[in-house]
Amino acid sequence: MQALNRGHVREFNPKQKEPHWGPAQASEGPMTVFVYVNTAKQVGDADHVKVFANVDAAEKWFEENDPEGVAFEYEVLE
């Protein structure tokens, strides 16, 4: 999968968390979100794409909905 933010994509996997991940802080660089795509759903379906504001939100959703799923981190453009 090619990232549209040209170069830096960190994969989120709830079983292999990296300790330096955490909520984006405005003073420490660009804001990022975590994006999950359910390829079993059709484009446009409400459950096709999920966007999480931070790792904690993604972890909670994955625990309850898709423990094997992954999300990719993307920079939010202004």
Structural descriptors:
78 residues, alpha+beta, four-stranded antiparallel beta sheet, 1 helix, disordered N terminus
Mean pLDDT over all positions: 76
Helix content: 10-25%
Order of helices and strands: EEEHE
Strand order of the largest sheet: 1-4-2-3
Can you describe this structure in just a few lines?
The protein is of the alpha+beta class and 78 residues long. It is built from 1 helix and 4 strands, in the order βββαβ.
Q: What this model shows, in words?
A:
By secondary structure, this protein is of the alpha+beta class. The chain is 14% helix and 22% strand. Strands 1-4-2-3 form a four-stranded antiparallel beta sheet. The longest helix has 11 residues, at 55-65. It is globular and about 35 Å long. The two termini are 23 Å apart.
List the helices and strands and how they pair.
Layout: E1 11-12, E2 32-37, E3 49-52, H1 55-65, E4 71-75
Antiparallel strand pairs: 1-4, 2-3, 2-4
